[in-house]
Amino acid sequence: MMSKLRNLSSERLPHDVVIDILTRLPVKSLIRFRCVSKSWYSTITDPIFITKHFNHNKAKSLSSKNNHNGFLLYTDDKQLYTAACYDDPTLSLTEVCRFQIPFLAVMVDYCNGMFLTFGNRDTLIYLWNPSIQKFKMLMLDVGRNDYSLGLAYHFQNNDFKILKIVHNSIFCNNKGPRFEAEVYTLSTDLWRRIEFSVESIPNLGSILEIQYEPFLFFNGALHFMAHTWGANNTNDFILSFDVNDEIFREIRLPENYLDRFIFAYQAVHRLVVFKGSLALMVFGPSVYDYEDGTVLDKCDIWVMGQYGVVESWTLKTVGLKRIKNFFGCTESGQLLTIMPPGRMVLYDPESLYENNIGIPSPNWMAYTTDLMESLVLLDHK
Asked: How far is CA 312 from CA 83, 226, 283, 340, in A?
């Protein structure tokens, strides 16, 4: 087989035609074909070819017509699993592949085939590409400060970025910044300090806290919740970080969005993509059941119909039993939740139908409409 490939590359086809053919091949084949010749090894590990192959796979995943409804990604202590969701009455799952996780880690985020994970130390993170079983270890200079991370893909430069927000633990008496921001760019392998400010909010040092859940990557920006010193809920808002111009912007929340909860301070906020739109999910107690003395949970889903337009927020309310964990939404708007005593459930907020999907309580779970493989990190030592 290898001898035939050598003849194909050296005698029969122009180099650009060979490149075009290689671009269309799966990752597993390309890893093997590095052994065909020195020129093929050089081509396949070249950053330009890696980007071309990535863009081809991205375009293919966006245009493909599949009979499934996206993919679930989930982990246990040792393995990453991927399963296709089939849009039938039971929403059956079919495992696509699984990967051994090559280090002790906690998953943080997923974007375009790349995973961001915490390592076994507070200052250690990994960028991992399971398609080629390569990872990049990054040490964080954060001291003993708390921090939060988000992974994004920079479409304009065909590059990956990590946003890091660090909470300055020595902040006191409003002196110095409470939070500092840095960006890591994969192509340069460097961290850069960036300005943590918003034009409409001149002094971001007044922010009391930010969301320490993974940030949401949507519409070319990373999004996370921010909370100011004020007790009024109008002092809560969404901060977006545009990965192209690296500017923070404010997205205001609906007015009085916490009024429907009896203990607003207990409400849990999660940013998600709901049926293609930015959405805010608020979980919390809403009604006291006097018969058995329990507080019942509910979930408000606020959907921003037109991105960035405050007036386009609309409310959808969902009655829920107590949930143990929430992982996100499918493309059709079903909620990925764990219900007591540990049932993994897809919950339809319109029909209120619960579907047990038969997955033991995962350590981490995410949903994606495209399951990309790529050669990213192949050219990194």
From this structure: 34, 20, 21, 35
Give, in order, the Cα–Cα distances in Å from 190 to each of 55, 156, 349, 364: 23, 18, 43, 28
With CA atoms as reference, report the closest residue to 322 among 306, 345, 305: 345
Tokens describing residue 214:
């993974």
Mean pLDDT across 345-365: 84
* CB-CB contact of 296 with 289 (8 Å): yes
Looking at residue 11, what DSSP letter applies?
Answer: I
CB 264 within 8 A of CB 321: no
Our CA angle for 329, 333, 339, nearest 5°, is: 55
The whole-model pTM stands at: 0.89
pLDDT at 233: 44
- State which H helix or E strand residue 364 sits in: strand 364-368
Which residues 6+ apart lie within 8 Å of 116 measured at CB?
107, 108, 109, 110, 125, 126, 127, 128, 149, 151, 162, 214
Tell me if 9 sits within 8 A of 37, measured CB to CB. yes
84-116: per-residue pLDDT in tens?
A: 887 655 567 888 899 999 888 888 899 999 999
Q: How far apart are CA 362 and CA 344, in angstroms?
A: 8
Maximum pairwise Cα distance, the chain: 83
Cα radius of gyration (the chain): 23
What's the half-sphere exposure (Cβ side, CA atoms, 13 Å) at 262? 10
As beta bridge partners, residue 186 has none
